[in-house]
Structures are given as C-alpha cells and as structure tokens.
C-alpha cells in the first residue's frame, strides 16, 4: 500500500532555497571579510558559483590566453579558482610598481604541496618568503653576484670554444650541442665537472628532475596544489597515481643534489681543485652541507635549461633574419678583425651584439609566466582592491609583446635596445624582463647573460646561419613552434650552419690547441 506525501515536494523546494540562501550569505560574508572596502577587484571574466573561473583557466600555453584576456579586461586581470583570488599582470609598469616599489607585500609565494611531495622543497625560487628563503638566496648570491661572475669567464670561454668545434664537425646536431653547452657551463662552474658530450649521467638526472618539477608548479593543472588534503590519500586509489610519480621524482631529485656534490667534494680532497662553486662553499666552512647541496642543485636546474632555450632561439632567429646576422657580423669584424675570437673585454665595443642578445630574450622570454607571488596583506592599487593571500602572476610574455613599449613586437629588431647614437639603452623599461622583478629576480642573471653573450658573439664571428635546403635546392622553411611548460624553447628544427671562411675554420680549429 503506497502513501502520498504531497508536502514533500514543497519541503524540498524550501530546503533547497534555504541552502542556496545560506550559501550566498556565506559567500557575501566571506567576500566582505576579504574586501572590507567598497572598491572593486580588478576586472576579469565572470566567475561561476562555487568553482569561480576554474573551467576558464588555461592549462596549455596559458600566457597566450592571459594576453588575450588583457586586450579585453586591461593590464591587470582578476579571477577566482574556488575561493582563491588570482591576478594576472600583463604590464611591465604595474609589475615594477608592485614587485619593486611594494616588494614588502609582493615577495611571498603560494604553497606548492606538489613540489614538496616531489622532493623540491629546497627550491628557494618557490619557497615562502622568510628566513629559510633568505639563507638560500644569500648563499647563491655570494657566488653569482655581478662581482663574482668574472671568475667563471675562463670556463665560459673554454666551453664556447668547445661549442665552435663541435658545430664544425657535426652541424646538423646543433640542437643537442646547445643543450650540452648549457649543461657544461653550469656543471663546470658549480661542481668543477666536465660532462660527457652525449648521455652524461649527471645531466640526464638533472634534466629528468627539472622536467618533473615543471609539472608540479601549475596550480590549475595539479589538483594537489589546490586541495592539499589530497596528498593524504593512498596511491592505489583511482585518480591518485600522482603519489607514485612523486615518490619516483623524490628519488631522482635527491640523486641530482647528492651525486654531483659528492664528486666536487672528492675533487677538492684528492686533487685540491677549489675553482668550483661547491669547492669554495666547502672550503669556507660557513654553511651546512645540506644548504650547500640545495643551492648547488638549484643553480644547475635554473641555469642549464634557460641558457639552452636562449641559444636555441638565437640560432632560429639568425637563420631567419640574415640582415640582422650580417649587421652583427659587421660590427664584430670591425672590432676584432678576422684573426681572433671575441673575449669578454670586447663586450663594451659590441653594442649591437649586446642589443641582439637582449632582443632574443625579449622576443622569446624563457619563462613566459613568472612563478606566482602571494600578497602578505591587503593592498589597493589604482583604485582596485587586492586582498591578502592573492596569487599574483607576472605574464612576462605579454610584457615583452607590449606594443606601447616595443612597437611591432612580433618583429625581431635589436635596434630597439639602442639609442640614436648606437649605444645600449639605459631605459629601465627596456631592461630584459626575462629575469623577473624585485626580491624574486633571478640570482644567476649575470652568469646566464655572460654565457649566452660569449656563445652568441663567438658563433657569429665564425659561422653563417641560414635555412637548410632540400634535394632540389629549395629552402626549407623553419616552423616557429615552441614547447609548453615552465621554461619554453623552440622545438627541434633544421637549418644551415657553415663556416664564414677558411680563416674562420682556422680560428675554430685553433681553439683545440689553445684550450689544451
């Protein structure tokens, strides 16, 4: 016998309506607590109830989407992921105002639980702002500050000469050679270790660890970063396979820190080689071993991939911009003649080459989205309210493509970094943005800049770059395709690399004897 309860439907409606009212009352209350002012948040896409804009947050090539949002909403874009506030900064001026002039508020980082699970908690680039971060940064700055970098010039020159020779014998494999060059400089300066030309175990370890680390820093793509409590669920549950990934990564990351460090320590004891960064740390006896390992491990991770990415862009741009290449070579020839390779002492006399380096960094910023900052207190900027705990993401890609600062930004024009009288500009807005802002700017900037400068100048001195040709003699167009991720680089491509002259070949071959 069935019984009808006609009031049940009405009761359900009332309960549902009541729950909705309670939810929205709670949301309004939370919003008021987070925004006690009557000022608006910066403009942005309209959020959905509860989840906010989570469905709109891009997980591939996000800097491109954020740049398009900027065209619609302005240079500062606000949106929400559930109850978390996020702001994208597309303007170099706003970045300078917030990260330089208000660095006290804008130097913290959000938590990245995934990085901790993967063994990357030592990466001070992602550490919360505080004493531990200061300790790590201070130690790295000691060895990579502007005044310290000239000590590494002999290594950089030697490795650039190695690059010239390998280009001569195996030009088609230039992409791999550039990876080797970038890794060789870092491993030599940090650990005093000369890597194998192919398949070096330390380099393979670091590349694997860095690739995995990059996958753990995207808040929208990694649920654990948004819901830290997920890390407590066992890996055998469906959807929790990241636990095994993290466990494997933790082992790889530990090896990346420990094994090269032990090599450098052994070199110091057995061969008294104290030229490397690690050897100097050990000899000073002022820091704990774990701190030394942390800083050395991060120096490789942060330096090798970015140097390679810059050099790959350089080759691509030289092969597709012969007029720029010829202009740089003319300047080099006028200063050096035809019988020697560039040295760091030539840098001031080669302003066009310096401008070319800067334009490579602008045209393809290595880290298009700089890691998020986190506000440590409420702030008001240009009439907009920015609550405490907001994640602020600098979109370096958009800043480098800003038509107001860089007219015709899609074009490769080194001249934009030169004054009318041919000197390198000192305009602060035209400083390379690739190395970040404020207290979180890249500590290894000076080493990286010198590594790419000596390589670019040396390659331009002795080589011509152009498009490869097919069997019929037709030029093969070079696709402008780039990877996705924390650090981006051009996808492998074909090009022509040939010595400029017989004299150039003699210069290249002479480096073998010069470097012993």
Reported CATH architecture of the largest domain: Orthogonal Bundle
Range of strand content: 5-15%
The biggest sheet amounts to: 4 strands, mixed
pLDDT < 50 stretches = 1-17
Q: For the record, what is the CATH homologous superfamily label of the largest domain?
A: Cytochrome P450
Binding site for heme: 442
Protein name: Cytochrome P450
InterPro entries: Cyt_P450, Cyt_P450_CS, Cyt_P450_E_grp-I, Cyt_P450_sf, Cytochrome_P450_fung
Family: Belongs to the cytochrome P450 family.
Structure description:
- The chain is of the alpha+beta class and 516 residues long.
- The chain has two domains: 9-34; 94-372 and 408-514, Cytochrome P450 (Cytochrome p450, Orthogonal Bundle), CATH 1.10.630.10.
- It is built from 17 helices and eight strands.
- The protein has a four-stranded mixed sheet with strand order 1-2-6-3. It has a two-stranded antiparallel ribbon with strand order 4-5.
- Strand 1 (76-81) and strand 2 form a beta hairpin.
- Helix 5 (131-144) packs across helix 12 and helix 8 packs across helix 12.
- The model is unreliable at 1-17 (pLDDT under 50).
- Pathway: Secondary metabolite biosynthesis.
- The chain crosses the membrane at residues 6-25, 174-193.
Question: How would you summarize what this structure contains?
Answer:
The chain has 516 residues and is of the alpha+beta class. The protein has helices at 7-34, 62-73, 92-100, 113-117, 131-144, 153-169, 174-191, 201-214, 223-226, 242-271, 277-284, 289-320, 322-336, 351-363, 396-400, 445-462, 502-514, and strands spanning 76-81, 84-89, 373-374, 379-381, 384-386, 391-394, 463-466, 496-499.
């Amino acid at each position: 016998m069935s019984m009808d309860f006609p009031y049940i439907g009405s009761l359900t409606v009332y309960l549902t309506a009541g729950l909705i009212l309670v939810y929205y009352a709670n949301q309004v209350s939370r919003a008021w607590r987070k925004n006690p002012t009557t000022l608006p948040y910066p403009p942005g896409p309209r959020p959905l109830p509860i989840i906010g804009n989570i469905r709109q947050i891009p997980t591939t090539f996000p800097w491109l989407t954020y740049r398009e949002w900027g065209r619609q909403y302005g240079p500062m874009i606000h949106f929400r992921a559930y109850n978390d506030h996020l702001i994208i900064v597309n303007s170099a001026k706003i970045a300078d105002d917030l990260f330089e002039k208000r660095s006290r508020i804008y130097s913290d980082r959000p938590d990245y639980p995934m990085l901790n699970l993967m063994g990357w908690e030592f990466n001070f680039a992602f550490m919360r702002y505080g004493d531990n971060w200061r300790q790590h940064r201070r130690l790295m700055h000691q060895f990579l500050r502007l005044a310290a970098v000239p000590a590494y010039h002999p290594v950089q020159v030697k490795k650039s000469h190695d690059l010239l020779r390998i280009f001569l014998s195996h030009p088609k494999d230039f992409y791999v050679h550039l990876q080797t060059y970038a890794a060789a400089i870092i491993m030599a300066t940090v650990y005093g270790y000369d890597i194998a030309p192919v398949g070096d175990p330390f380099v393979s370890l670091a590349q694997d660890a860095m690739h995995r680390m990059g996958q753990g820093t995207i808040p929208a793509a990694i649920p654990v970063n948004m819901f830290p409590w997920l890390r407590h669920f066992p890996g055998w549950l469906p959807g929790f396979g990241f636990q095994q990934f993290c466990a494997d990564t933790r082992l790889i990351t530990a090896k990346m820190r420990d094994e090269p460090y032990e090599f450098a320590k052994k070199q110091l004891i057995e061969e008294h080689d104290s030229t490397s960064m690690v050897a100097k740390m050990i000899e000073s006896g002022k820091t704990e071993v774990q701190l030394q390992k942390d800083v050395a491990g991060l120096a490789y991770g942060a330096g090798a991939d970015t140097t390679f990415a810059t050099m790959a862009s350089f080759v691509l741009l030289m092969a597709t911009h012969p007029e720029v290449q010829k202009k740089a070579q003319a300047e080099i020839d006028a200063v050096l003649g035809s019988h020697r390779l560039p040295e760091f002492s030539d840098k001031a006399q080669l302003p066009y080459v310096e401008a070319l380096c800067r334009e490579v960094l602008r045209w393809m910023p290595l880290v298009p989205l700089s890691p998020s900052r986190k506000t440590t207190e409420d702030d008001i900027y240009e009439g907009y309210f920015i609550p405490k705990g907001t994640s602020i993401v600098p979109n370096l890609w958009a800043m480098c493509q800003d038509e107001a600062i860089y007219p015709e930004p899609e074009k490769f024009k080194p001249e934009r970094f030169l004054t009318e009288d041919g000197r390198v500009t000192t305009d602060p807005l035209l400083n390379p943005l690739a190395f970040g802002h404020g207290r979180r700017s890249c500590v290894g900037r000076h080493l990286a800049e010198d590594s790419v400068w000596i390589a670019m100048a040396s390659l331009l001195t002795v080589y011509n770059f152009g498009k490869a040709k097919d069997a019929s003699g037709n030029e093969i167009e070079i696709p402008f395709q780039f990877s996705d991720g924390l650090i981006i680089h051009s996808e492998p491509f074909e090009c022509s690399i040939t010595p400029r002259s017989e004299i150039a070949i003699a210069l290249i071959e002479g480096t073998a004897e010069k470097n012993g």
